[in-house]
Specification:
The structure holds 2 protein chains of 2 kinds. Chain A is of the alpha/beta class. Chain A has a domain of about 160 residues: P-loop containing nucleotide triphosphate hydrolases (Rossmann fold, 3-Layer(aba) Sandwich), CATH 3.40.50.300. Chain A contains 9 helices and 10 strands. In chain A, helix 3 runs parallel beside helix 6. Chain A is globular and about 45 Å long. The relative contact order of chain A is 0.19. Chain B contains 11 helices and 3 strands; from the N terminus they run H-H-H-H-E-E-H-H-H-H-H-H-H-E. In chain B, a hairpin with a 2-residue loop joins strand 1 and strand 2. The chains are: A alpha/beta, B mainly alpha. At the A-B interface, helix 2, strand 6 and helix 3 of A face helix 6 and helix 7 of B.
Chain lengths: ~240, ~290
């Protein structure tokens, strides 16, 4: 396991969101986290990344207890987080955004090499190297946010709703990129509203309801009657 | 003709001084997102420190100047560490931080009166010169130095923000603190560095102003008001905007008193401030927030 969450209870200050959450991810897996609004999906990602109050339980990353570590330590350990809503540095250029992705290193040769890798994965970013973040389209901003995370050479990538607000065509493109990233041996934990698509690309899926894991399974989870009625609704 | 040249020279000198104040003020504003009016107190206290070293202890001027600038940087850092940081930790709003900054301003201004007295001090470097004649206008050597130092410093600051890893990290925190955290930048560290750099510039301004004008406890007040006005006119979110606004303010003020009695100089600044707050609060170079889902 690259990551195992055991009996996690987490939230924000006095506001508890998650209770008894257990999730595991293998190094070569894409794991999807689906569920209704307010179920606590994003909170799971934030709790791994040190952005919540954790009341109980443990988060183990590569045999190391990371429950109490701060964000910058987690980045150094190889965990990258792409927050919801196409978050880029809008007043920085594409190149500067990517450079900031590699903030934890000052090895210029390594940064250059990483940037080349990111440009190979997202050619559109190369064309826009010197454009400002705010001048990009929604899909390009999402790619930039993911590219920025890849600059950190993550072993575990946490993606919060990468398809949010994107057209079906762009969503498909982004999901294909996620598969590509995973094939290069990066474990991915993805939170998605778009349950059907997420199940399709994930090796395993967890369904979260009211801050608890309600259901878990492989790709065949899509045939589960409960999933069908609640999330896929015959659509 | 010569009056136009003289007014232009005066505008550039005034603009250079305002720009030094405004650049530090807007740098801190853009990164930490609140109005650090105590920046004016950094100028005042630094000028007195220069007077203390150069005037009272009779240290060589260059040494006094360096000590003053180092002092200013540490003074700004301490203000952040001892006042603003504990408040941020307790989730104080920006309005609370602003009030705290005004309180510190008054505290340190009063402290200067208590320690050094309310009378005017002077720091002089060599003889008072008659100045050089440039196209019919008069400018002293010191004033040329003020303009040159100001321009060089502002260019260096711009290059630092644009080209260095640290400068980019400062812009990243200014842009989106939460995302900056996700890439491993520690915003608190960036705040510390920002306060040091911004205050060091205020220290340099204090040295230049102390030579050109008098050292007095309330000198920081009019300076921060002018720096603030310059920053608002040009766009407080970005240092180049603040610099542009400062030079513009210098021009309007100095050419304004061609038509009006010179006592209206400060009033002109305020009228300009009001006009911009009403019509273009984001400033000349400012971008209206709200685009691109931000």
């Amino acid at each position: 396991m690259i990551l195992s969450i055991k009996d996690l209870a987490a939230g924000y200050g006095k506001f508890r969101v998650l209770e008894d959450v257990d999730i595991t991810i293998k190094p070569d897996e894409i794991v999807a986290l689906i569920g209704p609004n307010g179920a606590g999906k994003s909170t799971v990602l934030k709790s791994i990344f040190g952005l919540t109050t954790n009341y109980g339980g443990k988060i183990i990353y590569r045999d190391k207890n990371i429950t109490k570590l701060n964000t910058s330590e987690l980045v150094r350990l190889g965990i990258s987080y792409v927050p919801q809503g196409r978050q880029v540095f809008s007043s920085l250029t594409v190149k500067e955004n990517l450079e900031m992705g590699a903030f934890i290193t000052d090895d210029k040769v390594l940064i250059k090499k990483k940037m080349k890798d990111v440009f190979a994965k997202f050619p559109v970013l190369k064309e826009k190297t010197n454009q400002y973040g705010f001048a990009l389209s929604g899909g390009q901003q999402q790619m930039l946010a993911m590219g920025r995370a890849l600059m950190q050479d993550p072993q575990l990538l946490l993606l919060d709703e990468p398809s949010l607000g994107l057209s079906p065509k762009l969503t498909k493109e982004i999901f294909q990129k996620i598969i590509d990233i995973n094939k290069e041996r990066t474990a991915v934990l993805i939170v998605e509203q778009n349950a059907k698509q997420a199940i399709k690309i994930a090796h395993r899926t967890y369904v979260l309801e009211d801050g608890k894991v309600a259901l878990t399974g492989g790709k065949n989870i899509v045939n589960n009657p409960k999933i069908k009625s609640i999330y896929l609704g015959g659509r | 003709m010569s009056i136009v040249v003289q007014l232009l020279i005066n505008s550039i000198i005034a603009g250079s001084i305002y720009a030094l104040i405004a650049s530090g003020f807007s740098l801190i504003y853009s990164v930490a997102k609140f109005m650090h009016f105590a920046h004016g107190a950094v100028v005042t206290v630094s000028a007195f420190i220069l007077f203390f070293f150069a005037g009272m202890l009779k240290f060589p001027f260059w040494l006094s100047a360096i000590l003053t600038i180092i002092f200013a940087a540490l003074f700004g850092l301490l203000m952040n560490l001892l006042c603003y940081r504990p408040m941020r930790k307790r989730k104080a709003t920006n309005a609370v931080l602003l009030i705290a900054s005004l309180a510190m301003f008054i505290l340190f201004q009063s402290l200067m009166i208590a320690v050094f007295g309310a009378d005017i001090k002077t720091v002089r470097l060599g003889q008072i010169s008659t100045g050089l004649n440039v196209f019919g206008g008069i400018i002293t050597e010191l004033q040329i130095i003020i303009v040159l130092v100001s321009v060089i410093l502002l260019v260096l600051l711009w290059l630092f923000m644009k080209k260095t890893r640290l400068g980019k990290a400062m812009r990243a925190v200014a842009d989106n603190k939460e995302v900056a955290q996700t890439v491993g930048i520690n915003p608190e560290k960036i705040y510390n560095i920002t306060f040091m750099i911004g205050s060091a510039i205020a220290g340099i301004a204090a040295v230049l102003i102390a030579l050109e004008q008098n050292v007095e406890p309330n000198m920081g007040f009019s300076l921060i008001i002018k720096g603030f006005t310059g920053a608002i006119i040009g766009g407080i979110h970005m240092v180049p905007g603040a610099v542009l606004g400062s030079y513009l303010l210098g021009l309007v003020e100095n050419f304004g008193i061609w038509f009006l009695p010179s006592g209206y100089k400060d009033a002109i600044a305020f009228v300009l401030l009001f006009i911009f707050l009403l019509i273009r609060p984001q400033g000349i170079l400012g971008i209206k927030r709200g685009v691109n889902n931000k």
